[in-house]
Amino acid sequence: VKPGEVEPFHDHRIAMAFAVAALPVGVRIWEPHWAEISYPGFFQDLKRLCGAS
């Protein structure tokens, strides 16, 4: 995965998959709120697991 941007097109699976896959390089997820469909708090948990506040 290269640095860049991802548009999940209303698909929670794309938002979540690219959020994890892109951790080492940094990718902007447009409209990340779609992850809340299947995993409320996904990005908060991901930040916590990665040691971010």
TrEMBL record:
Entry keyword set: Transferase
UniProt cross-references to Pfam families, sorted A to Z: EPSP_synthase (PF00275)
Gene Ontology MF annotations: transferase activity, transferring alkyl or aryl (other than methyl) groups
Record-linked Gene3D superfamilies: Enolpyruvate transferase domain
Domain of life: Bacteria
SUPFAM superfamilies attached to this UniProt entry: EPT/RTPC-like (SSF55205)
Transmembrane spans: none
Residue ranges constituting the Enolpyruvate transferase domain according to the UniProt record: 2-46
Keyword Transferase found: yes
Record protein name field: 3-phosphoshikimate 1-carboxyvinyltransferase
Lineage of origin: Bacteria, Thermotogati, Deinococcota, Deinococci, Thermales
